[in-house]
Amino acid sequence: MSKYMNQVINDEILEKLNLKNRYNFLNNNLMAILTPGQFSYLKKVQKFCMRFEKKNNITHGPEEDVYDWIPAFGAEGYVTRAHNFEIVDVNYDYYGAVADFLRYLAIDMFDTQFAMGSGATALAINPIVDHHENIPERLEALKDLVTGEACGCICITEPERGSDAVHQLTLCDEQEDGSFILNGEKVFNTNAPKSKWAVAYATAEANNGNLMAQFLINTNWEGWNCERVNIPWTPKLYLGHEHFVNLRVPKEYVLGGIGKGREHLFEGLVLERIGIACGAISQCWGAVSHAAIYANMRKQFNQEILKFQGVGFLLTDLWARTTNVTLGILKFCEEYDKKIEKFGGEIPSNISRAMVASASQFKYHCTKLSKEVCYEAANLMGGAGLSDNTMMHDYVNISRIQEILGGSRQIQQYIMSLALRQLFKML
Ligand SMILES: Cc1cc2nc3c(=O)[nH]c(=O)nc-3n(C[C@H](O)[C@H](O)[C@H](O)COP(=O)(O)OP(=O)(O)OC[C@H]3O[C@@H](n4cnc5c(N)ncnc54)[C@H](O)[C@@H]3O)c2cc1C
């Protein structure tokens, strides 16, 4: 529950809205759907979050810095579970896309802004996993990020190049010793002002997507200049606006040389979009669990408001859509994990391409759904849902930004329309 300025929800309801009960609501919904292994992992992460909240007296109030929590979660392996990271001697017995979805569900219900920050660090982790080539400098960064020793960010967007991410203006100039000098500007990079490690893209020639390259950057290096961008709907997250001024990247940190950047950019998009979809559906659960508890307790006209059709039926609609899309994501994640296993860690490009459209569908659908579910669930809670007494305001706010990041709604629709064209050509 939030640290509030003034309590407007009665003691009984406010107490009932605690994290344990919200988790129980989720678990009772998922019990029949998840395998015993999946369910016990979900409960394990939840247990950690409940203990962490209690032990540290976390109120989710405005004064708390969510970045302070990263080391504790990292030590448990809760920054990301997409991989097992044996390459840096971190061996999780349970990992993959499903594991990461379940991790996200539990952490988002604990604190949604904190969960989104971990998602951005994962975006820096994934390209290092794919392109570390056993180079110690890269492995050091990977270990820092995975274990929560440091936070990470990804720098794709530029002030003049947002949706059009392949026509970048940030320049990279290759030196004789294999290092690169970077000059240019990036913006809206989640976690950047708090990050030790950044993964960034640049090009050897402005606007030429074929000449893009990908770099791992230590933000302590000279030439990395970062200022915070304020996104009022996620006030606890630090986004960056960076100026690269003759920023030298030694060759050990070049994840993909000239000509490799675009391929590396696209390769990360399936996981990035599914990650955003998992986040969005987790927000739906956070909002529905609040509203379901509240509507079962709040009385007006001498009755629990759930019993009024206007409330109860709307809530069932939000709940049904949230449950159904959760099943869809789970199926996608299970298939993804099976394919990774079957093909020894790397999904063949033709299958991966087919998954791009699927990932766009989920990103599009879940973020649109979350925007509606979070708002409507808060609406069902009346003034209480808009107050600072619970985390509902966080859900309403964060659900309004998810459609933009990771490719806007229109860009997902554009990608899907290209896929429809491909499908037609296959007839
Ligand atoms: C909270 C937040 C976190 C973010 N985190 C990161 C991050 O970690 N790393 C990073 O690199 N970036 C990040 N971004 C940037 C994000 O990816 C971009 O904002 C996004 O891709 C859109 O780019 P833009 O803001 O320049 O909008 P524009 O590209 O200028 O788009 C403006 C509008 O035009 C529409 N539009 C553009 N092109 C087309 C088209 N061809 N067809 C139809 N409509 C179109 C868009 O849908 C949008 O509605 C983040 C942004 C936000 C808000």
Give the radius of gyration: 22 Å
What CATH first level of the largest domain would be assigned? Answer: Mainly Alpha
Under CATH, the topology of the largest domain can be stated as Butyryl-CoA Dehydrogenase, subunit A, domain 3
Q: How would the global form be characterised?
A: globular
- Residue share in helices? 40-55%
What percentage of the residues does DSSP assign to strands (E)? 5-15%
CATH superfamily of the largest domain: Butyryl-CoA Dehydrogenase, subunit A, domain 3
Class derived from helix and strand content: alpha+beta
Q: Write the element-wise H/E pattern from the N-terminal end onward.
A: HHHHHHHEEEEEEEEHHEEHHHHH
Give the domain tally: 3
Intertermini distance: 54 Å
Low-pLDDT sequence parts: none
How many strand units? Answer: 10
3D architecture notes:
Helix 2 (19-30) crosses helix 9 and helix 9 (269-297) runs antiparallel to helix 10. This protein has 427 residues and is an alpha+beta fold. The strands form three sheets. Strands 1-4-5-8 form a four-stranded mixed β-sheet. Helix content is 52%, strand content 13%. The N and C termini lie far apart (54 Å). Bound molecules: flavin-adenine dinucleotide. Flavin-adenine dinucleotide binds at residues 120, 153-157, 162-163, 188-190, 231, 234, 239, 401, 404-405, 407-408, 410-411, 414. Flavin-adenine dinucleotide binds next to strand 1, strand 3 and helix 14.
